[in-house]
Amino acid sequence: MGGDVAEQSGTYYVRIQPVDNDFNESTDYELTVETTELDENDPNEQPNTATQIEADETIAGVLSGSDRDTYAIDLEKGETITVSAEYDGSFTPSTSLVGPNASDVELDSYYDTEYSLAHEPIGRDHELTYTAMTTGTHFLRVNPNIESSTIVTFDEKASYEMSVNVSGQSSDQPTDDEDPDDSESGDDNEETNETPNETDADTDTDDSNEESDNTSNESDQSDDTEDNTSGESEQSDDTSNQSDDAEDDTSSDSSDC
Known about the structure:
Layout: E1 51-52, E2 57-64, E3 69-75, E4 80-89, E5 93-98, E6 116-121, E7 128-131, E8 136-144, E9 157-167, H1 182-256
Parallel strand pairs: 1-3
Antiparallel strand pairs: 2-9, 3-8, 4-7, 4-9, 5-6, 5-8
């Protein structure tokens, strides 16, 4: 006895055929078809139809027969997801976590060993814990427990309530795209930017000193000019005195005659 989940509304066909293709034998059979209404999240059997959930959320669901429920949750590298659940029904479900590389993959009906990152049966003593190795959308799957010795039939049901908690990497930790040395580089740039300002201040001081020197030189030149003027005045006085002496000599000579 088996079954499947209708991915969409429409007409489906059931085909019955012999297993060994022995057309010389015949057998009688009785076929019973039943339908079971699943929870509101169905169909969410595969990653591409997964139900999006958030951290620290509690999900309630129902499995029936070969039904699987798949939930999508975004994790950052370094974050730890912890899943605990309780169930009530005729069989024991199990949980498995699938990585981002399975987003477009048609996974096995139960536990896919190629893509699964962690796996635990649901129960009071079981808890799934995993630390993300990469940033991306991970997929949490709830399946009939493949480790159980009992074959799950289509008319069997198991309800579950599952708590999902995420902890770990804080928001101030650097991500893969960030360089931890960026902050130090920024400090170096600030120090570099401060250095030209100090140079500008030195330049302004030098310019001020040059202006002071120029003013001093102009003062010295003015003093030299005044000295030269004073010297010329003294020379003029000497010339005038010499002229007076000559006139005195002439007057003396005239009297003697």
